[in-house]
Amino acid sequence: MDKMICPCKKVTRSDVLRAMAEGARTFKDIKKVTGAGSKCGKCEDDIRKLLKKHGKDQDKHKDKNKDKGKANKLEHHEQPIVVDALVLECRDAAALADFYATLLGWQRGHDAPGEWMDIVSPTGGTRLLFHQNADHLPPVWPPEPGAPQLQAHLDLAVKDKAAMRQAVELALSLGARLPEAQFGEDKWTTLIDPAGHPFCLVIG
Ligand code: FES
């Protein structure tokens, strides 16, 4: 028997699943589409659990970003301009977001499917945002005259050589490449991410 998830608005579990299948990703979306949660609000927890079970509930990330926003606002008292996000161009924003989210232990934040996606650190701070561009040409590494040049790159810190080895292994298992050209002896390792951006792992 179909479970009633919101008695006030007579919304069933199937109604919520249907809304999800049609694109609802947050409690707010479900509320808007089905009306569930718009009276006494007691069903909100159950709806969120259902969203979470199906890998959705982006509101959670929004709350985190709200906190991050607060932190940024505090910083704004002292500094009029803060770095909100570093944006990397790529052909597949979701794939590159997943690569860095897994490598860094961050979470997906917000996205506009097919256009961009960002990831956020559990401790807040500057986001990494991936902008989708079907014409993106990755830089050539090592640099060659006349070829697309590196404009910026990420330095990711690890604490020691063992952590460096683990991070390199993880990056490679996620689809990164290890170029032959290495210039940092054993303190730096340059890798190429799945979209072709060189980045460095640095002991420090
Ligand atoms: S139980 Fe859903 S609004 Fe009251």
Provide a descriptive summary of the structure in words.
The chain is of the alpha/beta class and 204 residues long. The protein folds into 3 domains: 4-53, BFD-like [2Fe-2S]-binding domain (Arc Repressor Mutant, subunit A), CATH 1.10.10; 59-132, Signal recognition particle alu RNA binding heterodimer, srp9/1 (2-Layer Sandwich), CATH 3.30.720; 154-203, Roll (2,3-Dihydroxybiphenyl 1,2-Dioxygenase, domain 1). Helix content is 35%, strand content 22%. The protein contains 6 helices and 9 strands. It has helices at residues 13-21, 27-34, 44-53, 59-78, 93-104, 161-173; strands at 4-6, 11-12, 85-90, 107-112, 116-120, 127-132, 154-158, 188-192, 198-203. It has a 4-stranded mixed β-sheet with strand order 3-6-5-4, with helices on both faces. Strands 7-9-8 form a 3-stranded mixed β-sheet. A two-stranded antiparallel ribbon has the order 1-2. Helix 1 packs across helix 2. The radius of gyration is 21 Å and the shape is elongated. The termini are far apart. Mean pLDDT is 87; it is low at 61-72.
